[in-house]
Amino acid sequence: MPRGYEGTRYISDKQMVVFDIGSAYTKFGYAGEVSPRGIIRTEVRCPETKKIRRIIDYNDLEDLYQLLVEFLHQLFFKRVVVSPKDAKILLLESPLAATSFRDTLARVMFKHFEVSSILFLPSHLATISTLGIDTALVLDVGYQEATLIPIFEGIPILKAWQALPLGGQIVHENMKNYFDNISNDIDLSEKTLEDIKVRTCFVTTLERSEKLGTEDAPAHSPDVIYPGVKRLVIPGEIREKAFEILWERDNDNLSLSTMILDAIIKCPLDTRRILAENIILVGGTAMAKGFASRLKSELLMLVKSDLYKEKLKVQSFKFHTAPSKPNYTVWLGGAIFGTTDLVLRCLTKEVYLKTSRVPDWPNLIDNQKEETYYEL
């Protein structure tokens, strides 16, 4: 057996395997390490159709089960290179994620791959461990949606959670609409749109954004040439307008910036200032150039508006800089938690096979106090 495999196998016997399965990308590696071993797309080649399918595009739960079997087989045997039966797994999940996905994932892990134990860890709680703090307002801007949960002294304030379908996917759709208006001959794949977004697009400033589309609008940023199969010119208008959809308020007056302010308003009065000065941005979309600066400008403008001026007495907002890139900060938090005593709270294979269910905090079955009976 190759030496590389033996080395990886030895590490996995001592440490937990950490998975952060996102809508677009999956991060994997071992607890105690400073960065994931790899980041791959959350997609798999369907054995029946031989076409590449994203996990999030499943038809029903049985279809999801088969897709996860193929995807996790690739993770275990081609990426992590470890026998699943010997592995202890730490899965990072959003508290707002669909329980059907988590239950199906657990069923695949325990019944198909027969892993020994799984620790389900809330992604927002894992994030704050990278900074060694216990109070923060965590905004995760991923591919499908943006989710926000305030955490005060290690306790999530769940009544203040926020979620909107604002992420990388809607930015790609916005870009595609721009290209369709320019020419009907341009047909770009999802991967190409993402590459164009990362290489050429940026978040413009609030002052400049307010002038775009007016009579005295400033000149657009210069066009750039995108190398590829066909020579494609990316107009400057697309480059600086691609992310504008994240800041445009919908019919309910909601946007990324209002998510933060609405969440703070729902929190207790004595926690609001502390949360506003401890904001953490995670997720791949938050890595866009100028994202944090634009978000801060939007917040400072909104708190002075009639909508929030009387409700919210917060004048400043501060952002933390995590010791990693925003796209794998959550994974790093899981790698830190995987080295603590929390591993004792894992869901073992024996317990799961008896109950065939994953404990869930909003379920009364898992939140009943043990009653003590005394004989008279």
What layout of secondary structure does this protein have?
Blueprint: H1 3-14, E1 17-21, E2 25-30, E3 38-41, E4 43-45, E5 52-54, H2 61-80, E6 88-93, H3 99-112, E7 117-122, H4 123-129, E8 136-141, E9 146-152, E10 155-156, E11 162-164, H5 168-182, H6 190-200, H7 206-211, E12 224-226, E13 232-234, H8 236-241, H9 256-266, H10 272-276, E14 279-282, H11 291-302, H12 329-337, E15 347-348, H13 349-355
Parallel strand pairs: 1-6, 6-7, 8-14
Antiparallel strand pairs: 1-2, 2-3, 4-5, 7-15, 8-9, 9-10, 9-11, 12-13
Helix pairs in contact: 2-3, 4-12, 5-6, 9-11
Annotation, overall tally of beta strands? 15
Question: Mean of the pLDDT scores?
Answer: 87
Strand order of the largest sheet: 3-2-1-6-7-15
State the secondary-structure class. Answer: alpha+beta
Low-confidence stretches are: 1-12, 372-376
Number of helices: 13
SSE topology string: HEEEEEHEHEHEEEEHHHEEHHHEHHEH
Q: Could you tell me the radius of gyration in angstroms?
A: 23 Å
β-strand amount: 15-25%
Query: Can you summarize the main beta sheet?
Result: 6 strands, mixed
Coarse morphology: globular
What is the CA-CA span between the terminal residues?
Answer: 66 Å
